[in-house]
Design a protein that fits this description.
Elements lengths: L1 H14 L1 H7 L4 E5 L3 E6 L2 H10 L1 H7 L9 E6 L16 H5 L5 H4 L22 H10 L21 E5 L5 H14 L4 E5 H14 L2 H9 L3 E5 L8 H16 L3 E6 L11 H7 L3 E5 L4 H14 L6 H10 L4 H17 L14 H7 L1 H10 L3 H12 L3 H5 L5 H18 L3 H8 L3 H16 L3 H15 L6 H4 L6
Parallel strand pairs: 2-3, 4-7, 4-8, 5-6, 6-7
Antiparallel strand pairs: 1-2
Length: 481
């Protein structure tokens, strides 16, 4: 493809010929048309490097002869969907596997999870152990006779719904499930909610909904991540409702993940929420410090990139928000240290000093600091939830409209940030004994399961830990959804 070759020449002048030859030219051109280029990476490292260093340049540098932008679709070679050898669910082979791709279906590029995310390297804590065990046993169905038999019969739990805060390991478990099932030969579709929505929108615009439905409903397992983002997208919810019903009636396995329980999802139709609860709902919780340390050691081992203790400790201290930030920092360190001036392949990763790590990760460090939860952010979220101003919460008004949000904000400062009562009192210009009374009062109401209080508490806490920022691209679809 001439446009791609021209793009590579341009990158040689900015990145250097050695970097282009090592990271870009080995990408396999699978197919292309006037506006799409499908590339295949050798492994997830090459894919990560491309996403970080090359993806931002494409929209400014890769055009066809009509000066229209070319969209690049990148996948990892060994994660391509295999030809199915087996089938979940009811027998209907002729209907299930007479799947002949047509142009629209070929344009549906699904998400490919990180192949390094496996069951073996998942760090399970007490709260995550059940989900880990259930999915692992589910994936053992259909293995050879001399292998360990699963105690979980397929269809016993359908759907399987995982929920938890940002960085609790949901996507890791979904990825591990994808890898295990595809390795056994099952047809698996894995898509983030945004991808599903984009496919719905594309199908509507192309007038090819029947092809969209054929693509999504001709699978053994459907795995959807971040289902909370279906909120307010009516066309997406309508299509997912019917896709869910079709697969469920055929006995096909459905696995979903979101950031809160089904009943707490916002702007999702009740009929979908009820279906999310048909099977089993499992909570995952974020890892604590020692578990994050184990995760970092595990990731370093998998990536064959051991760090010296001081550098590892620096990364743990600098990225305390959770597993996702920690993993992203390590991946960036691996890639950036590899191509940094003066670094050569024979230099051991254990030689990377704290100062070097600080330099390589300076941009991610700034983002981590910006995204860290602060008392001010908690107050802002509480104020937004109740439709008042932050100044009202910090002010002197004793009206119920201000006093209750103030009590809840103080409670969240204690609950999430573990702030001392005196420090919270200083923030709210109240005596520490008043803060202690407010915290006890909110805790009592939560213990009594008062619905209004519990709903507000969970909704605000989820919003604080999982800020949703819609992208410009998906925002343009609102009129269709």
């Amino acid at each position: 493809m001439q446009a791609w070759e021209k793009f590579l020449k341009v990158q040689e002048s900015s990145l250097g010929k050695d970097v282009v030859d090592s990271w870009l030219r080995p990408l396999k051109v699978v197919k292309f048309d006037a506006c799409n280029l499908f590339l295949e990476a050798a492994d997830s490292f090459q894919m990560m490097w491309f996403e970080e260093h090359i993806r931002p340049k494409l929209k400014h540098s890769l055009f066809n002869h009509n000066h229209a932008p070319i969209k690049v679709h990148l996948s990892v070679g060994d994660l391509q969907l295999p030809k199915p050898k087996k089938s979940f669910g009811k027998s209907n082979e002729a209907k299930q596997h007479t799947f002949n791709p047509v142009p629209f279906q070929q344009s549906l590029t699904f998400d490919y999870p990180d192949k390094l995310s496996t069951f073996d390297n998942f760090i399970a804590n007490d709260a995550n152990a059940l989900a880990h065990k259930l999915l692992k046993e589910l994936c053992q169905i259909g293995v050879p006779e001399n292998s360990e038999k699963s105690t979980i019969q397929h269809g016993t739990y359908n759907p399987i719904y995982l929920y938890g805060d940002h960085g609790s390991g949901k996507t890791h478990l979904l990825a591990a499930t994808v890898h295990a099932l595809m390795k056994q030969g099952y047809r698996v579709i894995y898509a983030r909610s945004q991808t599903f929505t984009e496919h719905v929108v594309s199908a509507i615009r192309a007038g090819e909904m029947h092809l969209f439905r054929q693509a999504y409903r001709n699978t053994d397992v459907l795995i959807i991540d971040d289902v909370q983002e279906f909120g307010r997208k009516s066309a997406t919810q309508e299509e997912f409702f019917h896709t869910f019903n079709t697969l469920h009636m055929a006995g096909k396995q459905i696995i979903l993940a979101g950031n809160r329980t089904p009943s707490e999802l916002q702007h999702i139709e009740p009929r979908l929420i009820s279906r999310f609860e048909w099977g089993i709902v499992l909570e995952l919780k974020a890892l604590v410090r020692q578990e994050l340390s184990d995760l970092l050691s595990n990731k370093c081992s998998v990536m064959q990139f051991p760090l010296n203790p001081r550098t590892a400790e620096y990364i743990l201290e600098t990225f305390p928000s959770g597993a996702k930030a920690l993993t992203k920092a390590l991946e960036a360190l691996v890639l950036r240290s590899h191509i940094a001036p003066g670094m050569h392949s024979h230099v051991s990763s254990t030689a990377i000093s704290v100062n070097q790590a600080r330099l390589y990760l300076s941009d991610l460090t700034k983002i981590e600091i910006q995204e860290q939860i602060t008392p001010e952010k908690i107050i802002k979220h509480v104020a937004e939830h109740f439709g008042i101003k932050s100044e009202d919460i910090l002010g002197k008004s004793q009206s119920r409209e201000c006093s209750f949000p103030r009590q809840l904000a103080a409670f969240l400062c204690r609950d999430i940030l573990k702030m001392p009562f005196k420090k919270i009192g200083d923030l709210f210009s109240r005596d520490h004994s008043t803060i202690m009374s407010s915290v006890r009062q909110i805790q009592k109401q939560l213990d009594e399961n008062q619905k209004d209080i519990l709903s507000a508490y969970k909704s605000i806490k989820t919003a604080i830990k999982n800020p949703l920022v819609p992208t410009e691209e998906t925002a343009n679809y609102d009129s269709i959804r």
